[in-house]
Prior knowledge:
Pfam families: Pyr_redox_2. This is Ferredoxin--NADP reductase. It is a single chain. The protein is built from 6 helices and 23 strands. It is of the alpha/beta class. The strands form 6 sheets. Strands 1, 2, 5, 6, 7, 8, 19 and 22 form an 8-stranded mixed beta sheet that branches. The protein has a 5-stranded parallel beta sheet with strand order 10-17-11-12-13, covered by helices on one side. The chain has a 3-stranded antiparallel beta sheet with strand order 14-15-16, with no helix packed on it. β1, α1 (14-25) and β2 (30-33) form a beta-alpha-beta unit. The N and C termini lie far apart (50 Å). The model has no long low-confidence stretch (mean pLDDT 94).
Amino acid sequence: MSDLYDVTIIGGGPAGLYSAFYSGLRNMKTKIIEYQPELGGKVLLYPEKLIWDVGGQPPILGEKFAKQIVEQGLTFDPCVCTNTKVDFIEKNQEDNFVISTHDGEQHISNSIIMANGGGIINPTRLDIEGSSKYENQNLHYTIPSLKPFYQQKVLISGGGDTAIDWAHELLGIAKEVIVIYRKDNFTAHEANVTKLMNHPDSTLLNNTTIQKLIGDRQSIKQVQLLNEQSNEMNVIDVDHVVVAHGYNQEDSFNLSTDLELERKDGYFYKGNSFGCTSQEGIFAAGDIIAYEGKVHLLVGAFQDAVNAVNSAKSYIDPNATHSAIVSSHNERFKEKNQEIIKDMLNI
Ligand SMILES: Cc1cc2nc3c(=O)[nH]c(=O)nc-3n(C[C@H](O)[C@H](O)[C@H](O)COP(=O)(O)OP(=O)(O)OC[C@H]3O[C@@H](n4cnc5c(N)ncnc54)[C@H](O)[C@@H]3O)c2cc1C
């Protein structure tokens, strides 16, 4: 029989990790279940991106930020199950949640926080014959390191923020960056598109798609492009191809028929800013939840996490306070506090 947890958090991304930190602050026995082998969530998809928009945090690389949120999330030693996919949720006779995972295990919990973000998320692959053999060579769906791109000619396919952000990241490192997009207009932030258009080392081509990858066994050497308006074909030399065609979201898990989670706009779960969903005992934080004014960004995930944990705490202990707790004097902080104070006093 599995141990009973106060709260089980599905997903070890920013929302799940901050929920784990906060539920530790609130003395809740906590478990995190994460499908991927590593904690960090979507931030692991952009290790080389500089993140500028987290309050009070100087610009920081995704990779470092992921490390920091993991460290913070583990402050209160939650039980962590990685490589574990939640498949099914039901209730048992004791009115506890039973969470079944793909490996046949069952996890019992008083409450659940869904922090499963975009669900099981994978980059949309190029639908071109033979493209898979170039993965891990010079066809990329994320940019794990900038080094291979130094002084190289890079073709980026995609017109959204990710494609344009990557183009900016690579300019100054790569020799040349060409961005193609199948539609009339790039959908990324206007100012970033304009900046890219005016850069001498970049070219932006709209109405353009990849038709064929031409190369040997090791790598792509050339790409055949099609201008879908003029029907003109064009073959260009490339050193690397980066594809930013968005992500496939695979629905995370199913529920037994007596549990009901209402959806909003198809994918997201309908909730409120207190992290409550339509199902009592199941709370939600981060990208997975939708309510009026919801911000699908890191800062939004952190605020949601605090509210979801407070709501879960009140659910399992109706006498507990629902307000946010600000404490710098938790036992777990003692050692770090002393280290910082010693450093400050130079002793
Ligand atoms: C390319 C890119 C760049 C971005 N840049 C910025 C930026 O600069 N600033 C900013 O504020 N935001 C940025 N964002 C958005 C930010 O990353 C998200 O808002 C944030 O990651 C949401 O956190 P989350 O924990 O809700 O979800 P996620 O980060 O998606 O984490 C959810 C986790 O749940 C796991 N999971 C899902 N289903 C299951 C299951 N059934 N069982 C077990 N585990 C499961 C997933 O594997 C995943 O690890 C960016 C996003 C992308 C894609």
